[in-house]
Amino acid sequence: MTKINTTLTKNPKNLPPSDKLGFGQYFTDHMFVAKYREGQGWYDAEILPYSPLALDPAASVFHYGQALFEGMKAFRQDSGEIVFFRPEFNYDRLCEGAARLCLEAPPKELFMEGLKKLVEADERWIPNGPNTSLYIRPTLIGSEGFLGVRPSHETIFFIILSPVGSYYAEGAKPVRIWAEETYLRAAPGGLGAVKAGANYASSLKAALAARQKGYAQVLWLDVEHQGIEEVGTMNVFFVMDKEIVTPALNGSILAGGTRGSVIQYLKSKNLPIVERKITITEVIEKIKSGELKEAFGTGTAAVVSPIGVIHYQGKDWDINKGETGPLSTQIFTEITSIQRGTKADPFNWITKLK
Ligand SMILES: *Cc1c(COP(=O)(O)O)cnc(C)c1O
């Protein structure tokens, strides 16, 4: 395997207060970087002090958007053990995304070794307060400088780390969301099923407009403005009288790891989880009839984010009176307890650092 060199910082930063971390505001002392060039393979893999990258201004990431990322977490459990939550899932998804974006994915050993060495170097940064964790951002970019339109022959893989608290400033309070009928996040055949930076570029304007109108997130619909896809940067679940529904993966929905964990957990409890198409019309009808009990988003950052209000065509529709529902609470508690090591891990989701 490509050897990983380590250069530790001479100027370690002060740790931020663990009750004021927020999300993605602080970065640790180090980063991992590895480079790939066609014909040469992976080279210059290193842990080094967190610092700006030097890139050719003609690099394909700037002009043609060859950028892909992952989001995962490490935890300091009460026993002192440092653990990762489903790192293999994130590696596999990175490989799928790299194939879609014509970038080179790092070999698995390089990914895992780089990750472990980096987290070891920055171990003191892993917080252990309530709802805190170390958020991990592996990223792949096309780094070759050229202006013809074709896949970059060079890739840079880097990992940065950010100690985080709750994703939402409001805590676990249900969010108000805006069903979006003008902008699309992703379309069939596009990049929606992979964690491409371009999907986020596509989403910013609608998210900003929603925020200005007093809604925390956008409820993304399909090209027909009917099929529900995702909520903000999360997958979405609807709890109804007879079934729990999450939109089936249709090629423009991102297959979240948390989505998979929630499905696995619900199945283990023999709860009726169904992956199928669900439209905004059906959701509004089931709110009207009282059949819709709860709705929530799922993602690594927030784990479970309850939805209190859906705005659709000029009207606000309350869900569960705007309160967090029992199933949302149960799932959040179950997954975070496994992450924190206060509950056994029957699903094999946890990987120890050492
Ligand atoms: C990352 C992401 C998710 C959630 O995925 P997790 O693996 O659960 O964090 C959902 N939707 C989009 C668009 C995403 O980028």
TrEMBL record:
Keywords: Amino-acid biosynthesis, Aminotransferase, Branched-chain amino acid biosynthesis, Pyridoxal phosphate, Transferase. GO terms for biological process: isoleucine biosynthetic process; L-leucine biosynthetic process; L-valine biosynthetic process. Pathway: Amino-acid biosynthesis; L-leucine biosynthesis; L-leucine from 3-methyl-2-oxobutanoate: step 4/4; Amino-acid biosynthesis; L-isoleucine biosynthesis; L-isoleucine from 2-oxobutanoate: step 4/4; Amino-acid biosynthesis; L-valine biosynthesis; L-valine from pyruvate: step 4/4. InterPro entries: Aminotrans_IV, Aminotransferase-like, B_amino_transII, BCAT-like_C, BCAT-like_N, BCAT_family. One of its GO terms (molecular function) is branched-chain-amino-acid transaminase activity. It comes from the Bacteria. Its EC number is 2.6.1.42. It catalyses: L-leucine + 2-oxoglutarate = 4-methyl-2-oxopentanoate + L-glutamate; L-isoleucine + 2-oxoglutarate = (S)-3-methyl-2-oxopentanoate + L-glutamate; L-valine + 2-oxoglutarate = 3-methyl-2-oxobutanoate + L-glutamate. The keyword Amino-acid biosynthesis applies. The keyword Transferase applies. It is an enzyme of class 2 (transferase). Its cofactor is pyridoxal 5'-phosphate. The modification N6-(pyridoxal phosphate)lysine is found at K195. Belongs to the class-IV pyridoxal-phosphate-dependent aminotransferase family. Acts on leucine, isoleucine and valine. This is branched-chain-amino-acid transaminase. It comes from Bdellovibrio bacteriovorus.
